[in-house]
Design goal:
57% strand; 7-stranded mixed β-sheet; mainly beta; 4-stranded antiparallel β-sheet
């Protein structure tokens, strides 16, 4: 069964940093594209950052210059490095991946989310 599991969220003070991780299950052969999204209660889910298999990134204006997205296929992992965090970054963060499984089937997968709280 394909799974994505996020980790790395938590409580951080304004100006601090977090690195979110997205671990793909062993049934994933390769992560092609990945996106990180966030949702605040009462608001629509928004894209934070995405990266293609070719390394092309798309970063939301609200976080531009403060986040870095990456994929490490050797470890079946994706990452979102977030710096200079602001209270408005508080949200549940989800990873999404377009990936191939060990049977070479492609699909889109979501993690369960990790809470990020930026507060003093």
């Amino acid at each position: 069964q394909v799974q994505l599991v996020e980790s790395g969220g938590g409580l951080v003070q304004p100006g601090g940093s977090l690195r979110l991780s997205c671990a793909a299950s062993r049934s994933i052969l390769r992560i092609n594209d990945m996106g990180w999204y966030r949702r605040v209660p009462g608001k629509q889910r928004e894209l934070v950052a995405s990266i293609t298999s070719g390394g092309i990134t798309n970063i939301a204006d609200s976080v531009k210059g403060r986040v870095t997205i990456s994929i490490d296929n050797a470890k079946n992992m994706g990452y979102l490095q977030m710096d200079t965090l602001k209270p408005e970054d508080t949200a549940v963060y989800y990873c999404n991946a377009e990936a191939e499984d060990i049977d070479l089937r492609r699909g889109y997968y979501w993690g369960q989310g990790t809470q990020v709280t930026v507060s003093s």
